[in-house]
């Protein structure tokens, strides 16, 4: 189990070190901030965009340079040549009113299914506010990626997960042309180019480091892609189908922190200004995120916050693991230091990653839950790949991400001013919640949830309607037998053996059957803390089996409930004939006898003398299949009987 340790001196003194002015490596900083400004050339905007808004791809594609040695794109030369053209496009857009822009380009944005968002990007460009332009570029690239994935599915089957692979696909080249795809790769998707999408979404670029002209250029390129796509759809007589957005369906499970009020927001802004978790060039991102939350723009808030969480954690990661050079963007020949690596147990050189030890288990489990676990919300993935309807982004998730961020601002600073802020009534509950967080989306947590839901279903069995005693006695051979007593006895014996393996606060009392079937005992068991971080593969494989068993048990229980209620209703209404009523009662008896046989065999296999655990697993699996098959057969017979009656 991970335990949060005392904050090392290196972390305490982060704010005392030389201030970080950029997270871009020298080569990447040169590529993004300077290369596209080196040639002072001018391009007539009419050679790029016609008066009615048609994009001239030939003019643009001619400026993409290729290496003579292998004919691959020369990204440095291409950025240098495209820089002046981007400037001309940017000046052109600045000359347009919103009405003019909408008339010329809104039609060509429809293929993205995000026309309103792209109009907002134009409005941000008009404001020339750096943080707003950076935010718009993040939203534009995610929207564009999603739309290009839809186009990919016109030709291919499995859409690539990474934008880099998507832009390099033959499928998109077949629709738009290879030269067009090469233009896009200069701006996004290739680590050798400007790579605007990645340096923003991973928190490397500050607002001041992103030239607005590149956002303008991507906006025009998006319209140009719409024009090319229209021609392709007409030629192939096909229709572009948009994949549905992903909806967050587990909001109650995500409710961890109390609601953040206006007072907490004001305090958070003060925290961000003095916390060593925040790099000074990135402060405007934090302020903008808080503003977005106040204005109920919850998607914007999270889009701004997630890269800054990654930046702050990267600062901790590189400090505590003594690799300060990795705070910067990696060169194109190696990988960036991102969430994926920072949350792992070991570094690439097999050394133990010290970040989990510093953050502690609760914080690590929160990050894994919200970012990585497959059954969790995976907020960053879904947002950055354009899979979420931004207008419907839930406040609940924004509240959780923001509240967790506040706790990190507090924890990793030793400024005297923070002491009072940490104890403030608006902040202290957030810190308390973060310190006791437990995973909700790890397979272990999901198994616990499944077991409780299954037991809730089984616990409803005693409430099922029962055939009157006098009617049972009317049928010869179906008198109440004593066979249920051995079944209960066997179960009692099994449970007695399990008592030794239960936590100290969990007891199986004299009334074993009722106690086991009560949710109280299982709630106690499922509340027992189990470390979920870095589970061995063998444990994860066993969890898969357990979850399948739990699913089958729940299905059997639901089928028993549905069948029993339906049969009872027909019994009471005298719909069942005498033979069918007879079969109904025999069905219940057979069900109990099958459980009796199963428990008898299980007692034998699990005894200290036999110790046949593999056989016990197989026996349990067969029993579940048998019960399910019987239940399905019973429903089929009932349906046939109904049909006969109606005929």
TrEMBL record:
Superkingdom to which the source organism belongs: Eukaryota
Annotated DUF4209 domain residues: 144-224
The name this protein goes by in its record: ER membrane associated RNA degradation
Gene name for this UniProt entry: ERMARD
């Amino acid at each position: 189990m991970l335990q949060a340790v005392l904050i090392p001196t290196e972390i305490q003194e982060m704010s005392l070190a030389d201030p970080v002015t950029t997270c871009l490596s020298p080569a990447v900083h040169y590529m993004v901030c300077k290369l596209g400004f080196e040639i002072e050339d001018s391009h007539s905007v009419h050679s790029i965009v016609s008066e009615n808004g048609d994009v001239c791809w030939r003019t643009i594609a001619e400026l993409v340079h290729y290496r003579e040695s292998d004919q691959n794109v020369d990204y440095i030369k291409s950025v240098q040549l495209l820089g002046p053209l981007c400037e001309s496009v940017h000046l052109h857009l600045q000359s347009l009113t919103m009405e003019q822009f909408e008339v010329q380009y809104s039609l060509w944005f429809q293929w993205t299914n995000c026309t309103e968002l792209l109009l907002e990007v134009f409005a941000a460009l008009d404001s020339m506010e750096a943080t707003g332009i950076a935010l718009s570029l993040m939203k534009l690239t995610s929207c564009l990626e999603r739309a290009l994935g839809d186009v990919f599915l016109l030709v291919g089957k499995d859409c690539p997960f990474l934008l880099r692979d998507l832009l390099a696909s033959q499928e998109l080249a077949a629709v738009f042309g290879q030269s067009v795809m090469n233009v896009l790769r200069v701006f996004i998707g290739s680590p050798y180019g400007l790579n605007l999408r990645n340096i923003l979404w991973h928190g490397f670029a500050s607002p001041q480091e992103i030239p607005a002209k590149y956002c303008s250029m991507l906006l025009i390129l998006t319209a140009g892609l719409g024009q090319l796509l229209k021609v392709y759809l007409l030629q192939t007589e096909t229709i572009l189908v948009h994949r549905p957005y992903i909806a967050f369906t587990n909001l109650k499970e995500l409710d961890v922190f109390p609601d953040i009020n206006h007072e907490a927001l004001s305090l958070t802004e003060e925290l961000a200004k003095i916390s060593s978790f925040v790099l000074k060039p990135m402060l405007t991102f934090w302020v903008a995120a808080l503003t977005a939350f106040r204005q109920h723009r919850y998607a914007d808030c999270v889009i701004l916050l997630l890269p800054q969480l990654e930046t702050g954690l990267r600062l901790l990661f590189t400090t505590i693991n003594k690799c300060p050079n990795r705070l910067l963007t990696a060169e194109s020949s190696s990988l960036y230091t991102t969430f994926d690596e920072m949350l792992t147990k070991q570094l690439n050189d097999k050394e133990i990653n010290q970040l989990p030890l510093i953050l502690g288990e609760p914080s690590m489990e929160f990050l894994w839950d919200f970012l990585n676990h497959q059954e969790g919300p995976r907020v960053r993935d879904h947002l950055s790949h354009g899979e979420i309807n931004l207008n419907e982004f839930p406040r609940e998730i924004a509240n959780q991400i923001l509240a967790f961020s506040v706790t990190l601002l507090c924890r990793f600073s030793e400024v005297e001013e923070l002491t009072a802020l940490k104890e403030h009534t608006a902040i202290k509950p957030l810190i308390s919640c973060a310190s006791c967080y437990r995973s909700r989306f790890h397979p272990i947590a999901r198994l616990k949830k499944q077991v409780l839901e299954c037991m809730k279903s089984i616990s409803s069995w005693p409430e099922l309607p029962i055939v009157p005693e006098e009617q049972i006695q009317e049928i010869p051979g179906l008198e109440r037998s004593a066979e249920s007593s051995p079944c209960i006895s066997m179960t009692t014996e099994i449970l007695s053996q399990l008592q030794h393996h239960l936590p100290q606060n969990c007891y199986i009392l004299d009334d074993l059957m009722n106690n086991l079937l009560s949710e109280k005992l299982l709630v106690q068991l499922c509340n027992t803390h189990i470390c979920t971080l870095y589970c061995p593969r063998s444990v994860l494989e066993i969890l898969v089996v357990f979850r399948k068993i739990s699913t089958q048990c729940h299905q059997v229980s639901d089928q028993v409930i549905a069948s029993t209620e339906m049969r009872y209703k027909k019994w009471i209404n005298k719909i069942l004939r005498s033979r069918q009523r007879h079969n109904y009662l025999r069905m219940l008896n057979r069900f109990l006898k099958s459980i009796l046989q199963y428990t008898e065999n299980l007692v034998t296999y699990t005894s200290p003398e036999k110790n046949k655990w593999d056989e016990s697993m197989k026996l349990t699996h067969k029993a579940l299949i048998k019960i399910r098959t019987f239940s399905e057969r019973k429903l089929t017979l009932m349906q046939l009987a109904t049909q006969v009656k109606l005929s």
